[in-house]
Amino acid sequence: MGLISGTRNLVIDAWSWLNFKPVFSDTLGMPHRRAFPEAAASWVPAADERRLAAYKLLVAYDNNQAGELAAFRDGDDARERREFGDPSMFVDTLVAHVMGREQHIVVPGADQTTGDDGPAAAAAQAARVQELLRQWAEDELLPMRMLQTERKAVLLGDGVYLLCWDPAKRRARLRTYDPGFYYPVLPADGDAADFPDRIHLAWDLPEDKQRGLKPRLRRITYELDWIRPRTASGVDRTGRPVRAPVMTDPGDDDTPSGPVLGLGDQVDEAGGIWRMYPWNDEPAYRTCYLTDATWDLGDLKGPHDVDSLPMDKAQYATGPDGEVLDRLDLYLDFIPLIHIPNTVPPAEEHWGQSSLAKALQVFDELAGTDTDSSKASATTGSPMIFLSGKSTGRREQQVGPGVMVELGEGGRADALNTAPQLAELREHRHDLAEQAANVVRLPAVSLGTMDPSKVPSGYALELSLGPLDSLISHMRLARGHKYALLLKFVQRLHLAGQHPDWVGTPPLPALPARLEFGPYAPTDQAAVLDQVATAYKEGLISLETGVRMLTSAGWPIDDAEAEIELIESRSFEQARLLADALGNPDEVAAFLRREAPAEPETPTVQLPALPGAGLLPAGDEDDDGDDPEGSRGTR
């Protein structure tokens, strides 16, 4: 703070781009207490106060309520500002571009459907995993969940997915959470980009007078820790549901009771407990524990934050299966929660940055210009009239259509023309909107504000999309490995839940999978088709690569593997060449996805019998037997 009391403290952190807002940063760099009471809650860590305040301020911009939030400090005059939804329009546009027109789950190797001996085992497994993942995505409404999370990520800078196993539906369920509920325990001396070992989801519950419930705090905790002996649901001395260790009964020979190991757990020579997970080849010593607890806010006394709440005052929830959620062993070696950053975080940061971060001051200028334009349009549509000359005795007269105003001798009426000022304000607004688009890197063509007739050529249009191309590339880079992690967790949850499609004979492995985003900009489908056809004809690319290129260009191909099978089943010219090269009808039939025709059995050749067959013709014999020719007869 400095030596002088009241000296302003300069704060530079992941949210310092909001320091220009007086309601966000006071002389000490902290948010306004009345405007952001949630950030000032006693259980919120000090390091998260500015983050929560930034989220609320960004949501206010998205809902045209930034003026109402500013009124806490600037008074009721701030409510008069006009906000016409520019930030919301920018967010919706960016979300549409980053997600693309469609999304596809791809497992590498799934489109390699043929091998030396027909369908290869690895390709068949990849195709089956890809099919199951796509079916899961359809059942879980993955595009809708993505839209919910991606909008929060673009607006706030962060989004959160949570996966959990549903025994009733027999599949992994996908949920989305507001990043304001997300409190990871980051390492103090490690890389903030590392996956944390403990994550809290916490939020306030309002008072419920009808049910007699006081204001409460709910916290759901996922923690990776060492595997411990088995526990079971029970109650403590006060009747509070808790989990307690399961102990063996004492033996007849006075053997003391001891802890019971979990299902499939083993103890090594050093006393550590390990288990084998279906997706690992080596023993694992850690597991994920789930805790779901609630506290009365009135019981939270003293310096407690979300990570150090008094567990003796917690009320633990009970799951649908009757298990008390007090460090419940999930039999997973990972935390099924995925944080989606909007941008690639700096090396020392964990959080992403909102796409509106650098343009908020421009949006404030836009709101000010809209407010001035609204006032100027009022005086332009209903101008002020000034009467001069001899008075008629009436101090004020209403002027409107069909109204006759009587003026005295030498009287004159003049109107105040504010149209030029209104035109100037509108021109200024256009410049500010263009400035905001340049800062966010959204060209006019992507916002739909450019007249198509003014585009000189397709090449010029492609050049104008250059800033947007780099922006979407960076945003998708920040998301790529996160969605790959989500799909890996989905596979592991189905293996852990013993889903019959995954643990059948043979069981499916957890294979690498990725989520491919479709095109976001207009594409020349005819040009892409020409490139694919030429390259495939010249043997420069495979059919699988060509189909993927067409899919990325926006061709209506739902299933690349099925499309390849349909194409090959009609490739009779290539089948003829294959038959000439191999001479094997079975290979040709497998290529065409058909059954090889049954070949008739070749009959045994029967030669007709010749007259005198097997007899030598008679010849002259030498009495002395000295003539060899005569002894063999005539040839």
Topology:
Blueprint: H1 49-62, H2 66-74, H3 86-99, E1 103-106, H4 121-139, H5 142-156, E2 158-166, E3 171-177, E4 182-184, E5 198-205, E6 216-226, E7 231-235, E8 241-245, E9 266-267, E10 273-274, E11 286-296, E12 315-316, E13 328-329, E14 337-341, H6 360-381, E15 385-388, E16 412-415, H7 419-440, H8 444-447, H9 458-464, H10 466-496, E17 514-517, H11 525-537, H12 543-552, H13 560-568, H14 572-582, H15 585-591, H16 628-632
Antiparallel strand pairs: 1-17, 2-3, 2-14, 4-5, 5-6, 6-11, 7-8, 9-10, 11-12, 11-13, 15-16
Helix pairs in contact: 1-2, 3-5, 6-7, 11-12, 12-13, 14-15
Question: Summarize this, please?
Answer:
By secondary structure, the chain is of the alpha+beta class. It has 16 helices and 17 strands. The strands form 6 sheets. Strands 4, 5, 6, 11, 12 and 13 form a 6-stranded antiparallel sheet that branches. Strands 3-2-14 form a 3-stranded antiparallel sheet.
Write up this protein:
There is one protein chain. The protein has 635 residues and is α+β, with helices and mostly antiparallel strands. Helix content is 33%, strand content 14%. The protein has helices spanning 49-62, 66-74, 86-99, 121-139, 142-156, 360-381, 419-440, 444-447, 458-464, 466-496, 525-537, 543-552, 560-568, 572-582, 585-591, 628-632; strands spanning 103-106, 158-166, 171-177, 182-184, 198-205, 216-226, 231-235, 241-245, 266-267, 273-274, 286-296, 315-316, 328-329, 337-341, 385-388, 412-415, 514-517. The strands form six sheets. Strands 4, 5, 6, 11, 12 and 13 form a six-stranded antiparallel β-sheet that branches. Strands 3-2-14 form a three-stranded antiparallel β-sheet. Strands 1-17 form a two-stranded antiparallel ribbon. Helix 1 (49-62) crosses helix 2 (66-74), helix 11 (525-537) runs antiparallel to helix 12 (543-552) and helix 12 packs across helix 13 (560-568). The radius of gyration is 39 Å and the shape is flat. Mean pLDDT is 82; it is low at 1-5, 613-618 and 628-635.
